[in-house]
TrEMBL record:
Lineage, top ranks: Bacteria, Bacillati, Actinomycetota, Actinomycetes, Streptosporangiales
Keywords: Hydrolase
Organism expressing this protein natively: Actinoallomurus vinaceus
SUPFAM superfamilies: SGNH hydrolase
Superkingdom of this protein's organism: Bacteria
Residue ranges constituting the SGNH hydrolase-type esterase domain according to the UniProt record: 210-398
Any Pfam family the entry gives: Lipase_GDSL_2
CDD domains per the UniProt record, alphabetical: XynE_like
Protein name: SGNH/GDSL hydrolase family protein
GO MF term list: hydrolase activity
Amino acid sequence: MAAVGSAAVIVPTTMVAPTAVGGAPRALAARSQPAVGVPRTWVGGWSAAPVTGTGSGFGDQTLREVVHTTMGGDQVRIRLTNAFGADGLVVGGATIGVRATGATLVADTERPVTFGGARTVVLPAGSEVLSDPVPLASPAGQDLAVSLYLPRSTGAATRHPLAMATSYLAAGDHAADADGGAFTSKASSWYLLGGLDVRAAPGTRAVVTFGDSITDGARSTVDANRRYPDDLARRLQGRGLSVLNEGISGNRVLTDAGGSGVSAQARFDRDVLGQTGVRDVLFLEGINDIGHNAGPVSGEPVTAGDLIAGMTNLIARAHAHGLRIIGCTLTPIGGSKYDSPEAEQKRQAVNAWIRTSRAFDGVVDFDAVTRDPADPTRFLPAYDSGDHLHPGDAGYQAMADAIDLRLLFR
């Protein structure tokens, strides 16, 4: 195992200031006031990496998006993103509350969300905005519902395609509804919502899990929070470390992948360095580069050396910002759509480098944990989701259980 570096220096991140329009907000019911004199710190409690949108988007509709927090606190704030929008868009009102079931909120938990004191906010193309703090106490492992009323056509809306969670859609303005009856349609992606911060106990920090579909939780059980980062978060509850999921299904280290997002090189600043309170990064990516044989020069095949160079660059960028970055070996591909002798050779070469180079601040050997001892190129059958490329729920749990938590507390 590679040596772990010195303690990280947390570098504050910045946020584009929102353009607020409209009148003053309604008074907030402050049911969750922090104890007087107790210092608190803002940290990411949930996140999702954005990609370009598809379709016509939304207009005169309310999105109710369900997220599962990995850290509790006494206040929350949300981050909206129009990172890949072609034009500015208007959010005509937003609320947040504790989800009961479906689109219904727990009574008396709904709170209005404001931006610079206003209920309405404009997001210019390519921008992100951070809301004002909202007094809402919630524990780790809580389902919260963020509702966004979109009065005008948004065009193709920036989204996170593979939510592995159900969100809801209503015609008209129903952001303030506690009852979910108006939300008659469902969505399997998160739209315009990039993150949620919580005001937590002093010293609380976050680890970003950065990667592709295996980090994103592909083929895990929908609405069950069975991705490996969720399982890790449950192991970490009560230890002052939240887990932020910045996986994108189909994402690559070296090249952009259309609806699967820009490359890890291009999104690292936003999706890792831009997170609130981040201290550590768990990095698991490269399978899609190998599977698509997509080298950094258009039309040329990828080599193990290409991937190693890309990972080395990301390590340097993490270290330049005082973050520790832990490398995770690439899981088996035998029997999958990516399987070939050449692809397996590249996977093995990259894994050997991750294990032995000491370039990362630590190593988690997901390959060793998930492979079948009888055929090490393949998943252990109990961990295979069935496509021989992604784990199932049991495989994701085994991955989370294999992480030596001492790597995250040095």
